[in-house]
Structures are given as C-alpha cells and as structure tokens.
Specification:
The structure holds 2 protein chains of 2 kinds.
Chain A lengths: L1 H16 L8 E10 L5 E10 L2 E7 L9 E2 L6 E4 L1 E6 L28 H5 L2 E6 L8 E2 L1 E4 L8 E3 L4 E4 L4 H39 L5 H12 L9 H11 L4 E4 L3 H11 L6 E5 L20 E4 L4 E2 L6 E2 L1 H8 L2 E4 L6 H5 L1 H10 L4 H8 L1 H6 L17 E4 L10 E6 L2 E4 L5
Parallel strand pairs in A: 1-4, 1-5, 6-7, 11-12, 12-13, 13-14, 14-17
Antiparallel strand pairs in A: 1-2, 2-3, 5-18, 7-9, 8-11, 9-10, 15-16, 18-19, 19-20
Chain B lengths: L1 H4 L14 H8 L16 E12 L5 E10 L2 E6 L8 H6 L7 E7 L7 E4 L1 E3 L12 H4 L5 H8 L2 E5 L4 E3 L18 E3 L3 E3 L5 H27 L16 H7 L4 E6 L2 H14 L4 E4 L7 H6 L3 E4 L21 H7 L3 E4 L19 H10 L4 H6 L3 H6 L17 E4 L10 E6 L2 E5 L30 H6 L5 H4 L5
Parallel strand pairs in B: 1-4, 1-5, 6-7, 10-11, 11-12, 12-13, 13-14
Antiparallel strand pairs in B: 1-2, 2-3, 5-15, 7-8, 8-9, 15-16, 16-17
Helix pairs in contact in B: 6-7
The chains are: A alpha/beta, B alpha/beta.
C-alpha cells in the first residue's frame, strides 16, 4: 500500500512538471507482463507513454482518470522492439576493397528503404553496414520507417573491418594504425616548428628598432595553431584509438580471430565481433578467450555441427554461457527472414538458450553495438516508445505479435483507447 | 591432468625440474625494480613423457624410458631419475601459482605404449588451411590439422616451405599463439621436368651452362686473389635453378616412373654430380643399382599398382618389393600416400592419414622396419632441409613426438597423444574422432571397473564375446 502511494506521488509530480502534456499524446498501456530487458520482468506492468517516449514503467501504477488506457487483453506481454545491428536491407551489395574507413553508409540512404513488413515484424532499428571487403567504411543506425536522413538515429556507429586468415587483411588493419602513427609524428613535427617560429616571432615582437617588423610579428602571434588535416584512414584510426569510433570485426572462423588479435597487437580499441554461423562452425574454439568476455558478438540464430560430425551445437548458447554478449541478426536481409526471426531465436531457446539472453540478444545488445542504447533496446523511462505486444511468451511457437508500437504510434494491432 | 594424478605417486617421476627451480628463484627479484612491466615473462614450459618405450628414430629403443622437454626442445632422454626434489611441493601448488608450466604424459595407461618422433609428411595439402605465407594464414583450429596430428604427422612440406602442424593450445595459460614457429624451413626442392625429348635436351643444355659457369666462377675465385680488379663472371644466360642445384642449395626434384626415365635421370645426375630426388619411381626396382650409384632419393607410394608394359621384354610395372630393393641399393626412401589431403572416405584409405599403412606395405615387401620409420621421419626431414630440428628424438631437437598404443607401422595402432614443440596438441580421448575406438582406461568412455579376464568364469567370457573389451586383447606383438 505504501509503495502505491509513492507511485501516486511520483506520478503527480511528473504531471506537474510537464504542464504542456496534452491528453492526446499521453496514454497508458496495461499488460500482464513487461520484459524490460534492462531491469528484469515487471508483472502487471503499466507503461505510460507520452509522445514518442516512455515516461514511466512500473508494476500496477495507478492511472489518472483522464488518461486513455489500453487494456485489451489480460494475457499480453510487452517487450522492446527488435534491433537488427547488421543489415544491408534496401542497399546494393557492391562495395570497395582495401582500406576505406572514411566511407559512410549514411551517404547511400537515398537509394532505398526498408519494407514495411520488417517494421510490422517488430523490427524498429537497423544498423546498415558498409558493403565491400577489407575495411569498407562506417555503419549507420536507422529507423525502419520514414525516408532519407530522417531515418537516421545515429551515424558512424561502427567501422566495419573484415578479418580473414591471410596477410592482406592483417596488412590492411595494421596499415590503418601505421597511417595514424605517421600523422601523429607529422603533427608533432609541425607543432614543434610552429612553436619554434613562435619563439622567433616573440623575439621579433620585442624588437624596438623595427616597429613594422614587431607589429607584423604581433599579428602573426595572434593566429592560433592550425593542426594538419589527417588522411581519411589516419583520421578514422585515430578516432578508433580515442574511442570515438568502434570497430566491428567480421570473421568467419576461429583462426581469423587469433589472426585478428595478432594484427591488433597492443592497440587499445573498442570492438565487437560479427560471426556467420555456418553448417560446420569451429567458433567454439575461441568462445573461452579472455578477450571475448563481455564482448558483443553478432550472429545469426542457427545451429551448426561440430566439424566432421553430425553433433549439433548451439554457438549462441555456448557464447552466452562463456560470458559474451550475443546480438542476434536475422538469417538474411529478406523480409521473410525478419518475419521468422523470433521463431528462429525461439528454436535456440527451446534447445537451451536462456530466454532472457535471447531477448536481450534481439534488442539491447544490438542497440549497444549500434551505440543507440540510450534511445532504444529496452523498456526504460526516457527511451523511445518502441514496444511489441505479444499474447504470450514471445518465443513460444503459438504466440502472436498482437501489436507494434513505434515511437508512440501503433503500426499494427487493433487497439482500443 | 586427472589422468596421471594417481600414478604420480611413483617416485621416479620426481621430475627434472631441479635445474628449473633455482632459476625461478632468480626470476623473482625482478619484481623489485620499480616500474615492472605489465606483461609477464613467459613461464618455462616443461613436458615429461613417462611409462612408454621410446623409439628415438635413430635405432635405439629405450624400454620404459623417460623424456623431458623444456620450452619445446628435448633436454633429456634416458633412464636417469631426472631427480627433482619438490614434486610433492608441486602437487600441492595449483597450476596457476607455479612458476612454470608442466605437462606430464603418463603413457603407462596406454597398452603397449611407445613414443616415436612425430612423422614428417613430404608433401600434404589442406592440413594448415590458408595458403601463401602460413605465418599469416595458418588455420590453427583446422579440422584437417587435427586429423593430421591424430594420424601422427607433426611436420609437413608445402609447395615452397616446410611447416609445423601447430595447433592452438587451449590450455596455454594465456600464452600467445606462436605465429613465428609455424614455418620452419624454406624452399629446398627445385622441380625439374623430365618428359619429352625436348625437355631432356633443354635440361642438359641448362646443366652444361651452369657447370661451365661454375668452372669459370671457381677460376675467378682463384684469380681474383692476384688481381683484385677482376670482375665476377656474368650470370647472364645461366639457368639459376640448375645453378642452385649444382651448388647444392636446392635438390632437383623429378617426377618419373618408367625405368628408361629413371636410368636417364641417374645418368645425367652422375654426369653433373648432383643427387636427384625422384617422386614416383615405380619401376625403380628394375634400375635400383643405377639409382643407388647416382645417390638418388626416392619418394614412393608403395601401394601404387600398375602392370608392366607387355610390349617390352624387360621387367617392369609396380612391385611390392620396390622400396626394399631400392633401399638395399642405397637409395634413401621417403614414403607418401597416393592422396596428399584428408578425405574421410573410409578406413585404411589412401589419404595422408595413412602414412603408416603405406609404409607397412613397403615393409611387407621387405623394407627393414628402421628404414620404414625413416621413410616418414628422417628422410623427408632431410629432403625438406629440416633434419636438424625434426625427424628423431634427440637432445637439442624440437620436442615433436607421438605416443602410440603399439608398433607405429601396424595397421591397428592408434596415436594416443601428439606433441608439437613441447605442447600436447592431440589427445585421442579428448577429441571426438577416435575416442570411441578402444578407449583408454582413464577415459570416460572406458568401463569404470577394469576388465580382468582372469576373474571372469569361462562361460561368462564366451557370453560376452561381442563386448568391446574383446577387441583390446587383439594386441600385436
């Protein structure tokens, strides 16, 4: 009873703080259960939505009589909308090879959109990666609706780098750092020269014999130092070192990973992994690596066989158990793959994958890879109101996706307010 | 580690860590230096093999001998007690707190356990994955590499280099993968074609050109001492491949099977004074004396079968005695199966996994067993220019060895453990592929209660005739 009072007070306070809130863009949804992903499950949850944001979520929150309430079916389960962090949906699959870390996918957005079926399947956010081999550019995080630049949630979300067990991919990766080093060296020399010049100018400025020279020197001294413009690759690898940019390393087998660590050497950069799950995947060899603990690993929800045998293994479950943060992507960029995405992950859950890790893998982990986790990926106050409503356990075969809410608007689902 | 715990009580396994322990004490004071580097010095790695007969590959057999390796190199083989005070101390100290890494292979749980040098495959494909420079392309998790190790191969020739089957060691205590240890030798063989009349003529011209150059070069070496202005003779027009063959920098590698070709190669080799390497050499037994005189080395596939050309009056075709006859004439024999890759098409196949079976066929034809072992260890190592590191078990050489459950060249024998550079990289009971076949006593697949036929009444033994234990009795002595 006491808890309820607190909520009431909180709620009243909130209303007072936002006097501009109109009844029209404020509403509440009552569900049997809400999977927040970020802070566990809330039974009998009430989600209060204003405009495009979630303003409050909690258990049995009392709702002011003026606020419309959606309470269609007592069995509903709410989850965050899905996030696909690795896709080329609507874009050409052609791209350059070699070292091109400055290229942006956001420059390609005019070429195509994403099918509405993807949105209706509950996918709200997509990371579009740059096509090509080597280091082909930087990804962008977009909404699955809208057009052009309005879709962009965040640009430069990760730099994609393909890593294979061969000299050329290792060389490409090392070359990036070498260019950054070269620039740093040049910059230091340039700065030194500038400072030396400055000393001379200061001397000149004090020269009382030649007033004209002194004035000129004084003018020169006012000019600030202009840093050199780095080469595009150098700039990218410098921001990688600074942590402004993260890398997504695409590997296909375990040895690629060991070669990547060799190429990376002592560099301290933030990176995630992308691993395709093939029929015979050998990735279980590296799952226990210390460098993979807490690391985001993007993979498709599929089973594979132990090489040379017919023993089925679930890489996703093994990686989750080993401490990696698995982020799932649909098995392909087709709309049907997005429509069957939940079902595909559901199969892994039935085979032993922790359902909470599975849901997190379809929502928050992807959002973290795309660095948009402050907006999407979980049901939290202040985040976008991207919510899916199911009539039961999201991973059960018989469950339907009843309604899709994106930034406060119902995309599908008959709802009574 | 569990597998030897109980057996370690035996006193002699007091390991040769005595020299190591003072060294550890010496390493400790380095902590005192203020700005100690973050990265720790790699710990010394010890590997001990006990409880098996050691076949060194040079002829000696040490019954129930012991072998000790430090940091990938063999440091002791013998019967000495490798006295180490302090094994008891070691047992109480958790592995991560030890100042060194220790792996003990106790082969006393392997019936008829034997230690051999790791086999050297003259040429393989697909065991390392990747291509080009193996330092940057090796697939250290490759299934084919594992199967190669499971069949006893630790070193392989590739198109233009020689590489170790360096698998990633899962329990490497944070050690980085040793990329630089993969390739251990460069190009040692120059392929020479011996086919059409034109190619033979051109080879003779190239050789005579190279020989003439070497004569002028040697004369110049003498003359230049008197006249320092004298210019080195020009190499233009001289075939560099043949020059390297005549200088002994590389070996000329021919592919020939017919006796006419073989004796032609022997003649030209004797004429120009180089030792030919002949791959194929199917009818070598017919002209073995010529090949022996020429100092030829042969790369054979003993199971090759081809009838003689019936139009010829002379003897010919393949012979089971080929390897034996060539060997008795002084031809060094390396043996390689018909297929260079791994194909899982069946048991006792003809792929690279069946080197010992291929050798066994040559032995059936009369090849002495030591020459049989040499044909998959020392001879290919010599051909690949890495015999100073691999091929035999000797102090100072790389610790590349296998532990088998019987004679290596017997068809029923399995490799139980494989060690490359002092790291245990294959344990039959730890991998899916052969663990279920005659599992070792210490394996989860083996019965918990050891089977003792003496304790079972005779009637019962007959009723259990189809049980797995029945097979293990089938040992070959």
């Amino acid at each position: 009873m006491k808890k309820r009072t607190t909520h009431l007070l909180l709620f009243a306070g909130l209303m007072a703080l936002q006097p501009t809130a109109q009844a029209g863009d404020l509403f509440a949804v009552q569900v049997e259960r809400a999977e927040t992903v970020s802070h566990g499950t809330i039974e009998h949850a009430v989600i209060l939505i204003e405009g495009d944001k979630i303003v409050m979520i909690g258990e049995d929150l009392p709702i002011d009589s003026g606020i419309p309430v959606i309470d269609k079916d007592p069995g509903w389960v709410a989850t965050p909308a899905l996030v696909n962090p690795y896709s080329r949906m609507g874009l050409s699959s052609r791209g350059p090879s070699g070292l091109n870390p400055q290229r942006k996918v956001s420059g390609e957005l005019y070429t195509g959109g994403i099918s509405k079926s993807v949105l209706e399947a509950g996918v709200g956010t997509v990371g579009l990666y740059p096509a090509g081999t080597g280091i082909p550019g930087r990804a962008v995080a977009v909404r699955t609706w809208g057009s052009g630049d309005a879709r962009i949630l965040r640009d430069d979300v990760y730099m994609k780098a393909m890593m294979r067990s061969d000299s050329s991919s290792k060389k490409t990766w090392r070359k990036g750092f070498e260019e950054a080093d070269e620039h740093k060296e040049k910059e230091a020399k340039n700065r030194e020269k500038w400072e030396k010049d400055r000393e001379k100018l200061e001397k000149d400025a004090k020269d009382k014999d030649d007033a004209e020279k002194a004035n000129k020197a004084k003018e020169e001294l006012k000019k600030p130092y202009v840093p050199l413009t780095p080469k595009p690759a150098a700039a990218a690898f410098m921001s990688l070192r600074d942590g402004e940019l993260t890398a997504l390393i695409g590997i296909s087998k375990s040895s690629d990973y060991i070669h990547f660590l060799d190429a990376l050497g002592e560099e301290d950069v933030q990176w995630s992994l992308h691993v395709p799950i093939s029929r015979e995947s050998d990735l279980f060899h590296v799952k226990g690596q210390e460098t993979l603990k807490g690391r985001h690993v993007i993979m498709t929800p599929a089973f594979s066989y132990h090489p040379g045998t017919l023993r089925r293994r679930s890489m996703a479950a093994e990686f989750v158990e080993a401490g990696a943060h698995v982020a799932f992507v649909p098995t392909s960029d087709s709309t049907s793959a997005h429509e069957s995405w939940l079902r595909d992950v559901g199969q892994l859950v039935r085979a032993g994958l922790d359902p909470h890790a599975a849901l997190r893998g379809m929502t928050l982990n992807g959002a973290e890879v795309l660095r948009v986790d402050e907006h999407v990926g979980s049901l939290d106050e202040g985040k976008h109101a991207n919510i899916l409503f199911f009539d039961g356990d999201p991973f059960a075969a018989t469950t339907n996706l009843e309604a899709v809410l994106m930034e406060g608007d119902f995309i599908t689902g008959e709802v009574n307010r | 580690m569990i597998r030897f715990q109980a057996r370690l009580v035996s006193a002699f396994v007091a390991l040769a860590l005595a020299p190591a322990l003072p060294a550890l004490g010496a390493a400790a004071p380095s902590d005192d230096e203020g700005a100690a580097p973050e990265k720790e010095e790699p710990k010394d790695r010890y590997l001990v093999v006990v409880g098996a007969d050691i076949h060194t590959g040079k002829g000696e057999v040490l019954r129930d001998g012991r072998l000790l390796a430090k940091n990938g190199k063999i440091v002791a083989i013998g019967y000495d007690d490798f006295e180490v005070p302090g094994l008891d101390y070691d047992r109480d100290v958790p592995a991560e707190e030890r100042g060194y890494e220790l792996e003990i292979i106790d082969a006393s749980n392997v019936p008829n356990g034997r230690v051999y040098p790791g086999m050297v495959a003259f040429s393989t494909s697909g065991l390392l994955g990747g291509g080009g420079d193996y330092r940057d392309s090796i697939d250290m998790f490759n299934r084919n590499m594992l199967l190669g190790l499971a069949s006893g191969i630790t070193t392989t020739g590739q198109s233009s280099s020689t590489a170790k089957l360096k698998r990633y060691v899962p329990n490497s205590a944070g050690r980085d993968y040793d990329f630089d240890g993969v390739v251990i030798g460069g190009k040692t063989l120059s392929t020479v074609s011996w086919g059409s009349a034109a190619s033979k003529r051109s080879l003779r011209e190239k050789l005579s050109g190279a020989a003439a150059y070497l004569r002028t070069y040697r004369q110049w070496q003498v003359d230049v001492k008197k006249d320092k202005e004298l210019k080195e003779p020009s190499k233009s027009g001289v075939d560099s491949t043949m020059l390297s063959v005549l200088r002994g920098e590389t070996l000329a590698r021919f592919s020939a099977d017919y006796q006419d070709d073989l004796s032609g190669i022997a003649k030209i080799a004797m004429e120009y004074g180089f030792r030919p390497v002949i791959a194929g050499c199917r009818e070598g037994w017919v002209v073995a004396d010529e090949l022996g005189r020429a100092g030829a080395m042969a790369v054979l596939t003993p199971r090759t079968r081809r009838a003689k050309d019936e139009e010829l009056m002379a003897a010919g075709g393949s012979s089971i005695e080929n390897a034996a006859i060539l060997h008795s004439h002084g031809v060094q024999i390396a043996i390689i199966p018909g297929s260079r890759g791994i194909d899982l098409g069946g048991i006792a196949g003809r792929d690279i996994m069946h080197l010992p079976i291929e050798v066994g066929f040559a032995i059936r034809g009369g090849l002495p067993e030591d020459a049989g072992l040499a044909s998959v260890t020392t001879v290919p190592a010599r051909l690949l220019g890495v015999s100073h590191r691999v091929g035999t078990l000797e102090v100072g050489k790389d610790c590349d060895l296998i532990v088998t459950d019987g004679d290596l060249l017997h068809y029923q024998t399995f490799v139980q453990y494989t060690v490359v550079d002092g790291d245990l990289v294959y344990d039959k009971q730890d991998e899916l592929y052969f663990a279920h076949i005659r599992p070792r006593d210490d394996s989860l697949l083996a019965p918990l209660v050891p089977f003792d036929p003496a304790e079972v009444p005779i009637e019962e033994e007959e009723s259990e005739g189809d049980s797995e234990e029945g097979e293990t009795e089938d040992e070959d002595e």
